[in-house]
Structure formats: C-alpha cells, structure tokens
Description:
Structural class: alpha/beta
Distance between the termini: 17 Å
Number of domains: 1
Amino acid sequence: MQARKPIVAGQFYPGQKIFCVDEINQCLPPESDRSGLADSLPETIVAGIVPHAGWTFSGPLAALVFWAVKQRHEHVHTFVIFGAAHGYFGQSPAVYDRGSWMTPLGEVAIDEEMADAILNTGAAISDLDAHGSERTTRTGQNSV
C-alpha cells in the first residue's frame, strides 16, 4: 500500500504527535470561551474551509473549524483536502486515490470510494505521481 508522507512535518507544524497535539490545543480558544462558541454554531455543519499554511499563520482558524465540526459530528468519515500537492503543476487536478496519508498524528486511509466518485465525474485524474515529492523522505522532517 502506498503512503503519502508529510514532507513538511517539522517545518510548518511539529513532526511528532505529542507536539502536534500540544500545539493544536494552544491554537484553540480558551475552554471558557468555547461554550459560548458552541451555542452559536449552526445545527448541522456540512463543510468547512481552512487555510493551507503553516500553523503559525493559520493554526487558530484551522483548529477552530475542526473543533466546530466535532461539536456537531463526533465521528466524521471523510475529509476532502484540496491543494495539498506542493510540487504538482499538471494540467488537470490530481487525486491521490489509493493507499493512505501519513501524518504525525497517525496514518489515515484514503476513502477510495469517494476518490472513485470524484474521478468518475471527469473533474480530476488519478495521479499518485503528482504527490511524488510528498512521498520523498527528507532527513529529519518525517518523524511520524
């Protein structure tokens, strides 16, 4: 099974689980503010958009969105991630449709049924090589 590795772990976010969890908790609003935020959430959340940047820049917003989703849906089956191939400049959007993604928080299986559904629309192509640079281990950066 092919695994997409986190090529920038240790640069734009921590490379080890314990440090990721700590930094995510630091990005969240204080617990005393969360109950008021939870009360203001819509009844159902079907999507959220978070910036794709280092946690220093976007961590608080990303953490808040994922926290909000968890308030309404304890278990989420699939997240769709756009724009995460750092070195791909192909003519068509590419889908990493098989295998898994490695993260410092653990390994995440690809929802292959969802990937196939996206591919069947013709809006994207299957191209694991589009993520080739993501699978390349750089010394000291992929502490999973």
